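Design review, sub-item: ligand-bound model
Attendees: FS, YL, KQ
YL presented the inputs for the MRU complex:
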Amino acid sequence: MKFGSRPARSILAYQSKARVHIVDQTQLPFRVEERTLTTWEQCAEAIRAMRVRGAPLIGVTAAYGMALAATRDATDAALREARQALLATRPTAVNLQWALDRMARKLDTTDPAERADAAWSEASAIEAEDIETNRTIGEHGLALLRVLHEKLQRPINVLTHCNAGRMACVEWGTATAPIYLAKESGIPVHVWVEETRPRNQGLLTQWELENAEIDHTYIVDNAGGHLMQQGKVDIVFVGADRVSLKGDVANKIGTYLKALAAKDCKVPFYAAVPLSTIDVRINSLDGVEIEERAGDEIRLIRGLSREDRVIDLRLLDANVNVANPGFDVTPAKLVTGIITEAGVFTPKELTPFLKARMI
Ligand code: MRU
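KQ shared the predicted structure:
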């Protein structure tokens, strides 16, 4: 699938040129601008500034950051410095730690002279696995859409929050993969796309769905509950930044309110996640670090000027107090299921499955 003449990839890396190409998501959907990253410091900056974002893509970018680090200096000290700086870029998405741990396991057991090659091939494996994983998540999610379609015999209304689409991953997306596959399978789907203030990642989802010619309607965040009460939402699909053993889900701020409304309206609520988003070290997400983001994300809003320039408009003076938690936690009791590459699990089924997998 392509976006116009461009490949639908959020990231592309070339070991021979020691370069990583990203789409700068701070400019989307207004401009499709590519950036070339040639140092781990640039990878860290891209994650911190949200030029790349979304839990899986953050992990892949950090892995390539380690490959760039190993290309420049493969000593233990240099790699430790790069790893610590990359790890500090964003706190909530566990895929960052997961990818860096995986890179460290590879590099720690490789002779320094061979570390650069090993790092590129491990990062590229993480990237390739992301594509395959999301496609498989899509197949499991598709089965849920198919059941609904057989029952209702009309287009299925999916509500999604934030962007858990291909721009949050390498391809496919987690929450969007079932939707893309539904289109391929001839199952009609309509998507309610939530704006997702303050950064409006819903714009990315809208852009992706428009490019894929999938029927959708853009709504403000506060409309989701109302639409559920009206019977206009059949299923909620969101992504996640971290899921605990018992099935608590940390995702973009506002997800919890959608889960509450879904429970009240008996609308099934699913988080679509790769297993790498499950933090098997913790049972619940009580006390998980929730990223507090810059107040200017609320005080300013980005858009296109009449002259077609990307501009930030001021909504609030710089001295107005704002709070900007980036994520919230949806407790397992509000989650119908977790869609992973290994299948769909209710929160109760998740812990035994994960424990058996760890043995
Ligand atoms: O702050 P962001 O844009 O990185 O937050 C992204 C989300 O919350 C996504 O829903 C989550 O990472 C899942 S991405 C497949």
